[in-house]
Amino acid sequence: MNHPVIEARGVTKQFGRREVLAGVDLTVPHGAVVGLVGTNGAGKSTFIKCLLGLLRPSGGTIRLLGEEPWTLSAEMKAHLGYVPQTVQLYPWMRVEQIIRYVAAFYPQWDAAWVDGLVRRWDLPKDHRVGPLSQGQLQKLALVLALGHRPGLLVLDEPVASLDPVARREFLRSLLELTADAEHTVLFSTHITSDLERVASHIAVLRNGRIALFDELDAVKDRVKRLRVASRADLPAHFAIRGALRTQVDGRNALVAVADLDDALVREVETNWQADVSVEDLNLEDIFLELHHD
Amino acid sequence: MTKVPTPFATRLLAVWLSLRTRWLYGLFLYAFAIGMSGFALEIVRQRDQPPRLVHVLSFASGLKPNYTVGVRNVTSNDVAPVAARSLTAYTPLSDWRTSDQIATLPNLESVEMFTPASGDDLAWLATQPKLSSQSLLMTQNLLAVDLSRLSASQSLRHLRVLEAAGYRTEDAVAWPPNLEVLDLMGAHELPVRRLEELSRLPKLHTLAVRLNPRHPSSKLPEDAIAALTSFPALRNLYLLEMSHLYPDLASEAQRALPGLRVRPSTYDANRVSRLTAMCLVVSVWAAAVAVMLSPQFVAPQSLLLPGYRAPHVWMAVLILATGLAVVIGLLLVAGTDLLTALGLCGGTLTFVGLMIAFLGRIEPGLPGFTQPLMALPVFVFTVPVLMGFLWLSPGEVDWFLRGEKPWLSETLLVTGLVLTWDSGRWLTSLYRGVETAGRGGCPMAMLDFGGWKTWSLTINQSKRPSSWRYLLTGSEQRFDAVTSEPLHRAADRRRLWDAGTEITSRRAGLFMVLVSLVVFAGIFAWGNFVSGVEFEPEMLVGGLAYAAVMTIYLPAMFTYGRLPFFPMEVLRPVSRADWVADWFTMTAYDLLTPMAASVVASVLAAWLKQSSLPAIPYWPPICLLFCGVWLSIWGAELWLLTYRWAGIAVVVALLNMAGGMFAMSVSSSRFGWEAWMNSLPGVWTFAVASVLLGGCLLLGARRRWLTWELGA
């Protein structure tokens, strides 16, 4: 495929007077595993639903697999997998029945792989869906979304109810799926440690816009924390170019910067006659720094 | 600091304000107030009107008083329709015979004559082999010898003579030997010796006469009582009651003749119709109360929150007591006996208790069938059944309202109180019961269909499915077959969508129709037992037509239950346009099945009645009208679904009740085909308008579905 898997331009979405998306721009390349992060109510689910044609954007354009999501063709949908935040499955069916039911829609269903997933995730095949626990439901929803090896897998907080073992199994399956770089994944989550294991890209949604989108490694390279130790007390207006957050305490300061380079470090050392040490941040720290007001 | 306890009244008010769907409560209370106001106005308007004289045989013998000309089959193929319409009630029988028209009626079953009939007429009628029912009205000149000429008839079973000189004389009358129902109500006081004469009729089971008591007592003469006890087959005795002179005549006669069912020959139609209207209003109100009560006590706060239970219980008691006080007051003003009024309130409480039992059962009897969905048919079917009883036996209802069935009133009252007490006890510990049984997660809201379904499945997980359940759900082999077939055509895909519903609306409809069959058969059997109403096939077929049309709300209800799955289903490999087309096709089929069944049953009922079918030129517009109604229901249901409003269930159910009544009226020929037959352009206008309306609704619904934000 030559075109990006997801291409969103200036997407807005309003519910009455409330604007949830205020102009989202995002281009997801083929084969990427994109982690979509944001605080509660940031609009992650709304954006995902707009992507899938479940909500109609108030403005902007979206192309999904090269087509308009609202009128996505059957052929393109056959390459689409989705796990919603709240899983809704037919409660009266047994696990094996619902697998057969969903499989009937997809000509490319990989029954052997699905059987393996069911065994690995310890799903009771003869049990009805209704009484399954939330975690088991989520596992089942993931199996159903993965069964046809979709070209684009969209997951809305897929591991929120999973225990650590199941989460590891899920991440392993995701890695299996994306190993050939033919499959694209977009998933929203709050568990940043999972993102660090599997994501190739990260997109941060803040105030209805994509505040940051880049390859994960690049983000980690760019976003750093500077520990500044000056010889004299730092003024209240102490500021550094590109700072995400600044915390001053006498002669010391902690500064998170979005785009670190050597020039910036030298500039701080010179201007403030300070010793500057650079600290790496994990994804959770980066997320916190980005959302610190 | 000492905390000042909140006054109980304030807590009660808080409960009222906290009711989750108090708007629904308010709506129904408003409807209740409006209905009761109308009811009260009706009482004031009608209180000075005398009781309507409705002849006993109109509900006892199966005679058709709406036949202007009592010649069976007069509008059928036996007589040309034009000629038939030219015959009127005032056409002399001799003219009929002269024109040889009546002789061409091989199926002549009943004759009703308003004009003075001669003995020759009666002799000729007695030769008709199929004549089973005859009414002779205003025939003062008939002598005993004339009446006796009917005795040659072996087929005559029902005879009604409103006024004849013959049977007031001392002369002996020879009566038709196989007479079963005899109505001599028009006569002045019947001589006792006439009673002795009639007591020799071996099959006479119903007798309507005028027997005056000895003034000022309300008791029948001893010799009359002795004569009446000697009838071999007599079961029903209807007495013309002169209420102003002998108000207790029927009651006294009943005490004197315990082996017979003695009833007055008139009833207060106003009183019965008022009760009918009140039953409808009270049923809606009681159902709303029941729907509101369970969620108040199923939540954990009913046990954990201090001071929660008492105000909630008292609020329920207050609501019930207020409504019932209004009902009792109005019934008493309408002249109903006090015990009967209390009994009717007991009946209301029984209805509330049953609704609660169905709505919030911890042990659902039907796996996978949501409780609210079960309660809806309870309501939808109970009310018409109640109305059916009222219509079938108004004389008995009037008898009951007069306080002459204290055992029934007492039974209703005790049952209502016991059931309400038990429901109350059960309600207040509902949460504990649910948790103790290991069946937590009981949904809070009664209209949370998805929640109820999941809960029901949870608690039925370990149960082995019973074989009869397949009637509703279909076998698992069927599911296997559908899911193993490759998707080649749109029809395969629709079968697959269909397999995603455990109980299809068609199966549920079939189940409801079968249940209705049993219920209607029971009603007719009861009507036959109590009032001597003869079973007629068209009545049962008409009932089936009613039941079938009642099920047209099921597609909307089952699709409503499917809504939570739509966001996932629309992402399956099918375009949105095809997905919409699939669902429209499926619901069309689901709706067409009960409607077609209803139409077929209605036509069959009309055909069985033989005089109700419209003429051939009317069939095209009537078929078009059917299509229009079908399109309108189809479009309206699908359109309303997109608003995801749970109240649609109530709206559709009420509309369906109206539709059911319509079907019933069509099948029982109360619809007035005759009026339609005289207005072909009118029928065409209705038909075209209904098609246009249906088309607009359907197009609007399709547009809504294509732009429906399923993720909202």
Account of the 3D structure:
The complex is a heterodimer of chains A (293) and B (712). Chain A has 293 residues and is an alpha/beta fold. Chain A has ten helices and 13 strands. Chain A has helices at residues 44-52, 74-77, 95-103, 111-120, 134-146, 164-178, 192-198, 216-222, 262-272, 283-290; strands at 6-15, 18-28, 33-37, 59-64, 80-83, 152-156, 184-188, 201-206, 209-215, 224-230, 243-249, 252-257, 274-279. In chain A, the strands form three sheets. Chain A has a six-stranded mixed sheet, sandwiched between helices. Chain A is elongated. In chain A, 43% of the residues are buried. The mean pLDDT of chain A is 87. With 712 residues, chain B is mainly alpha-helical. A seven-stranded parallel sheet of chain B has the order 1-2-3-4-5-6-7. In chain B, strand 6 (236-239), helix 10 (249-256) and strand 7 (261-264) form a beta-alpha-beta unit. In chain B, helix 2 runs antiparallel to helix 11, helix 23 packs antiparallel against helix 25 (554-562) and helix 28 runs parallel beside helix 31 (680-706). The radius of gyration of chain B is 30 Å and the shape is globular. The interface between A and B is large, with 37 and 40 residues.
